[in-house]
Amino acid sequence: MSADQTPTAPALKEWPLWEVFVRSKQGLEHKHCGSLHASDAQHALQMARDVYTRRQEGVSIWVVPSATIAASDPGDKGEFFEPAADKIYRHPTFYVIPDEVGHM
Amino acid sequence: MNTPDAQRSTPNAPLDYLLHLADNALILGQRNAEWCGHGPILEEDLALANNSLDLIGQARLLYQHAARLKGDGATEDSLAYFRDVPDFRNFTLLELPHSPPLAATASGDRDYATTIVRNFLYSALMVLLWERLQDSADPQLAAIAAKSLKEVRYHLRHSRDWLVRFGDGTDESHARAQAALDHLMPYTQEFWTESAAEISAADTAAGVRASEIRADWNTLVDSALTEATLKRPSSQGYVSQGKHGVHSEHLGFVLAEMQSLARAHPQATW
């Protein structure tokens, strides 16, 4: 049976993909740690808890639908990123730091 | 009881009560571990393995406490691996296979709805029980309760979530969840028939009377079933007797698999 003969849209056979971000106890920000399939946000949170925080990795979890992430195209690497390669003056490495400042 | 520990001023829970709690956790932990490597999806495979490890951890703490009370060289391992079917005090509900009703030697496909319904019915009970056991007169048991409560709250959340998804899902998932509920609900009658160990534990304030938590359990179950659009079956008929040591034909098979390694290599360490 072809899809256009079906009166209503067929149930989703594949769960959508979610990206998982976990903040560790000491961490200030959530870090991307992987992805998983889940039917909705609550479901994704619960699964992220079981998959990504079993070894005390975190104290907070974010999940984001992967489809909502706009990503740069790997094919654009040349024009996006490579022009920065020879602009070493953009790194603040030409300052002399007094010894008293210590580690910065 | 004439063991030295029992004569101390600190009131300990009766040995049979601790074994009942420990056997419950161990047998359901062993059953849920059967899903390891066979879960319907990777995430659930991990979730069930987590659940099993929580339960086996609870069983270990309870067996360690029981072994100290029992004395006579008992250890957590001797209690878990060197007792036989009639010595086990777990609810019959927890030893049943993950499938619709089966004769002992039959095998069927594992049914995730059965797993979820059982975990839900048991976790709902244990959330209420561990909550109250935090105030047990037995300080060791109170400490175990505080730790276990956090774990079992998540088990309840996990199983309730799936129960609602199954019940309120497709025709197929609804039918399977209802069938699992119809199959398992009668076994929950055993929760409410008190054993001598439970009565004596409650009398010394070490334990909790089942009648105290029954109404709350019904509320938890009914609210989830309503949300899941499932019908609560009548739970009447034969009352299983697992906590008195009278088990279904399935427990022997669970123990055979679980105990074979320890019995083939007694005293082995790793």
Structure description:
The complex is a heterodimer of chains A (104) and B (270). Chain A is α+β, with helices and mostly antiparallel strands. Chain A has helices at residues 41-52, 77-81; strands at residues 17-23, 31-37, 60-65. Chain A has a 3-stranded antiparallel β-sheet, with helices on one face. The longest helix of chain A is centred in the middle third of the chain and has 12 residues, at 41-52. Chain A is flat. Chain B has a single domain, classed as Up-down Bundle (Ferritin), CATH 1.20.1260. Chain B is globular and about 55 Å long. Chains A and B meet through helix 1 of A and helix 2 and helix 5 of B.
Topology:
The complex is a heterodimer of chains A (104) and B (270).
Chain A: E1 17-23, E2 31-37, H1 41-52, E3 60-65, H2 77-81
Chain B: H1 15-33, H2 42-70, H3 76-81, H4 112-133, H5 139-167, H6 171-184, H7 189-192, H8 196-203, H9 210-227, H10 251-264
Helix pairs in contact in B: 1-2, 2-5, 4-5, 4-6, 4-9, 5-6
Order of helices and strands of chain A: EEHEH
How many domains in all of chain B?
1
The CATH topology of chain A is what? Answer: Ubiquitin-like (UB roll)
Q: CATH-wise, what's the superfamily of chain A?
A: Phenylacetic acid degradation B
CATH architecture term of chain B: Up-down Bundle
Q: Biggest interface pair, residues each? A: A-B, 13 and 13 residues
Mind summarizing the main beta sheet of chain A?
A: 3 strands, antiparallel
Number of helices of chain B: 10
Feature tags:
heterodimer; A: 104 residues; alpha+beta; Ubiquitin-like (UB roll); three-stranded antiparallel sheet; 2 helices; 3 strands; 19% strand; flat; disordered N terminus; B: 270 residues; mainly alpha; Ferritin; 10 helices; 60% helix; globular
Brief synopsis:
The complex is a heterodimer of chains A (104) and B (270). Chain A has helices spanning 41-52, 77-81; strands at residues 17-23, 31-37, 60-65. Chain A has 104 residues and is of the alpha+beta class.
